[in-house]
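can u do me a favor
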């Protein structure tokens, strides 16, 4: 199923956006340049599935996979351990924003997670803590 979703990303690719993201320093090796709305539309064709989401998340080279993964992980199956593992592997502000907005804010332990991340020395984890707190306070 991972290959099927990647084919959809390819179909929605946008070279201009991909070039702009690369020029702006996006850390991913593979950037299709899919717009966020396109990623949302693509993920709506799939049922939430922990294995699919984890497979996408594990593809750290591919921007669109990292952005789609939080949209596909079943909230009730997302353990605190998995949440911490994912948060510790965030490589960009964009990924942090999507993870917080599409998954983390729905977790029953979201405030506790935010507090744990805020104690980190890592700037992206601290950013994720702040972003998650903002999402919770909306």
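np, heres the sequence
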């Amino acid at each position: 199923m991972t290959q099927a979703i990647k084919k959809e990303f390819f179909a929605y690719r946008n070279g201009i956006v991909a070039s702009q993201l690369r020029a702006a320093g996006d850390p991913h090796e593979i950037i299709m340049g899919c717009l966020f709305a396109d990623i949302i539309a693509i993920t709506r064709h799939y049922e939430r599935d922990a294995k699919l989401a984890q497979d996408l998340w594990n593809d750290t080279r591919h921007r669109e996979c990292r952005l789609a993964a939080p949209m596909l992980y079943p909230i009730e199956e997302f353990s605190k351990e998995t949440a911490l593992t994912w948060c510790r592997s965030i490589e960009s502000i964009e990924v942090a924003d999507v993870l917080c907005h599409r998954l983390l804010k729905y977790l029953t332990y979201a405030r506790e997670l935010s507090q744990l991340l805020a104690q980190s020395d890592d700037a992206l984890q601290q950013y994720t803590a702040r972003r998650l707190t903002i999402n919770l306070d909306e």
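The chain is about 65% helix and 0% strand. hope that helps!!
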